[in-house]
Amino acid sequence: MSSEQKILTRDVEASVVPIGTKVTLQKGETAHITQSLGGTYTVIVNGNMFRIETKDADALGIEIVATPITAAPSGPMTQEQLEKKVWESLKTCYDPEIPVNIVDLGLIYDCHLTPVGETNYKADVKMTLTAPGCGMGPVLAQDVQNKLISLEPIDEANVELVWDPPWNQGMMTEAAKLQLGLL
């Protein structure tokens, strides 16, 4: 695993991986970036793993670049177009310990869009984790919710962590298995 070394330029809030507890990493500490996918950063500081959110990338000396707003199609988006955007957005969510998105990992069991009014929607997602004891569950669920409500027509997003059926490696896509060296 390659890592990029950075000195923290300010105190920064981070989540301990895999338990999810919030802590403050101190200015001047050395952070080794082990993963920077989906806009979050997995770092190792003093032998412990943490997740730093995109909004705090400046603490790692990384410039926060605003993502360009993509032009919406003329007129309201169809439910089919929105479903495609939803799945694209979900593919930008990553477990901080695994360099594969949560869709290809097989962690999203269901995503249902319900019209609310003429042009807006509510999204209901059922997802799981690779292990029931993973404390990052609420962090990942919040990440999914944030990505969904950032889509223009979605006014509300509910994310439910479920354990049935239990996740197993057979739920991963072939691409995920290949990326993780399981094929």
Task: Provide structural commentary.
With 183 residues, the protein is of the alpha+beta class. 17% of the residues lie in helices and 30% in strands. It contains three helices and nine strands; from the N terminus they run ββββββαββαβα. The strands form two sheets. The chain has a six-stranded antiparallel sheet with strand order 1-4-5-6-2-3, with no helix packed on it. The two termini are 19 Å apart.
What's the gist of this structure?
With 183 residues, the protein is of the alpha+beta class. The strands form two sheets. A six-stranded antiparallel beta sheet has the order 1-4-5-6-2-3, with no helix packed on it. 27% of the residues are buried.
Lateral arrangement of strands in the main beta sheet: 1-4-5-6-2-3
How would you sum up the global shape? globular
Known CATH architecture of the largest domain? 2-Layer Sandwich
CATH superfamily of the largest domain: Fe-S cluster assembly (FSCA)
Q: Determine the N-to-C terminus distance.
A: 19 Å
Question: Which radius of gyration do the C-alpha atoms yield?
Answer: 17 Å
Whole-number tally of structural domains: 2
Unreliable spans are 68-73
Mean pLDDT: 90
Which fold does the CATH topology of the largest domain refer to?
Answer: GMP Synthetase, Chain A, domain 3
How many DSSP helices? 3
Largest sheet, in brief, is:
6 strands, antiparallel
Task: Determine the strand fraction and express it as a percent band.
Answer: 25-35%
Q: State the CATH class of the largest domain.
A: Alpha Beta
Helix content: 10-25%
